[in-house]
Amino acid sequence: MAKLCNDEVAIVMIPLPAQGHLNQLLHLTRLISTYHLPLHFTGTTVHLHQARTRVQGWDPLSISNIKFHEFPTPCYENPPPNPNSTTKFPSQLMPSFHATCHLRHPITSLLRELSCSNKRVIVIYDSLIAWVLQDAPNIPNVECYSFRSLSAFTIHSWNKPNSVEENDGFLKNLPSMKDSLTLEFLEYSKVQREYRKNVSSGDLYNSCYEIEGLYLDLLSKGNSTGHKQWAIGPLNPVKPFARKESRKSSICIDWLDKQEPNSVIFVSFGTTTSLSDEEIKELAIGLEKSQQKFIWVLRDADKGDIFNGKSRKIELPKGYEERVGKRGLIVRDWAPQLEILGHVSTGGFMSHCGWNSCMESISMGVPIVAWPMHSDQPTNAFLVTEVLKIGVVLKDWAKRDELVSSVEVEKCVKRLMVSEEGDEMRKKAMELSKSVVDGGGSGKEMDSFIAHITR
Ligand SMILES: *[C@@H]1O[C@H](CO)[C@@H](O)[C@H](O)[C@H]1NC(C)=O
Ligand SMILES: *[C@@H]1O[C@H](CO)[C@@H](O)[C@H](O)[C@H]1NC(C)=O
Fold first, then answer.
1. Mutate to test the pocket of ligand 2, among 125, 148, 223 (most ligand atoms within 8 A of CB)
2. Residue 34, domain CATH
3. Count of domains observed in the chain
4. Which domain, by its residues, includes 254?
5. Which residues line ligand 2 (CB under 6 A)?
6. pTM of whole model > 0.85?
7. Is 400 found in the same domain as 268?
8. pLDDT digits (tens, 9 = 90+) for 389-401
């Protein structure tokens, strides 16, 4: 890696305060910190605390060139998620997004201050929080880059839902965007897009050419304006986790240590999904009937402030935990997902296919049972199952109004964990992981981005 010591270029990170987004931007901060540039990670007190306590694979407070700027958290409503809602979009987070837009003034002050003492100030902001940067064009030496937290595949297919000519036509089977987002969120993201237009000097993707080169190329070709882009993923640490002595003790990892290679399916739907009581019952029965080993993270979705308010007590069928006994581990709080995916005993991942989870799974070489819930997840699930062919579909988006049955759960889990087809997918996932880790964008593309901003 090139070591560019130019302390006249300061970098300011501005995340969207939702876990998958916070996490990706924090991991990106770690990658940039190895180039010895001063980094300023901004956010509300609550969300910076959240990002730091949940991050895995490294300690954010141990890196001296990362400075955290905790701005007072504006007051906002903190409703619980609704597991019975007809759409799975996490509307409970919207007040925290709106509140974070109030960081416009403290962020502007920080940029002005840094602008006076540095040759250049580089801002890397989540594309969904562009509103806070509306004063940036008036500050000298400030250059803004948009972090796109979506896959290139999703952005490409959302941009051109009707254009299939550059493909073999299979894109015509893409899941519809219908019901994946709320009107409230569409309004919000439209506003962010308007502000993004005025400030962006380029785009950064948590992806790489090994995973979706065709779609990254299509995105850059689609832009004749000389707009720059870098595919600098995977952002999460990809090295195998250090063995017992150096890692934090965890029930999940201790349990995995006792299982056979590739014998466990990890079941987790991220931080924005709340399953209904009915869905939980079907999933529980399906996992039990599959006779496979599993770790199941049984949590409700995050609230806008995860440190406040009660969360729902989720009930399992009577006697369930006794029946599955040692075959299943049920985890009701925060689980070390990246470490679990990186463990040799883990052979499959039942996932909502958020992009952060997809990248973690791909980089750790774990194939997926896809149960997309909202937003970009249906398209990510399509990428994983139809394009990369390292997964099976549990929830078909065309049947999004139907309950996922225990029979389907059982079938998909067995298909991935105990079939030749499943072994083939695991092999493919391992090969992809290897090419991503060896050749991925966090090496050469990152060098190119750093060379550009320190030019
Ligand atoms: C969701 O519906 C179940 C009945 O299916 C009910 O018991 C529960 O209280 C409801 N939860 C919420 C948060 O509305
Ligand atoms: C094209 O460039 C603009 C900025 O010039 C950017 O906002 C937009 O996201 C780019 N479009 C695509 C498809 O990448």
1. 223
2. 3.40.50.2000
3. 2
4. 243-436
5. 159, 196-197, 200, 203, 219, 222-223, 225, 227
6. yes
7. yes
8. 999 999 999 999 9
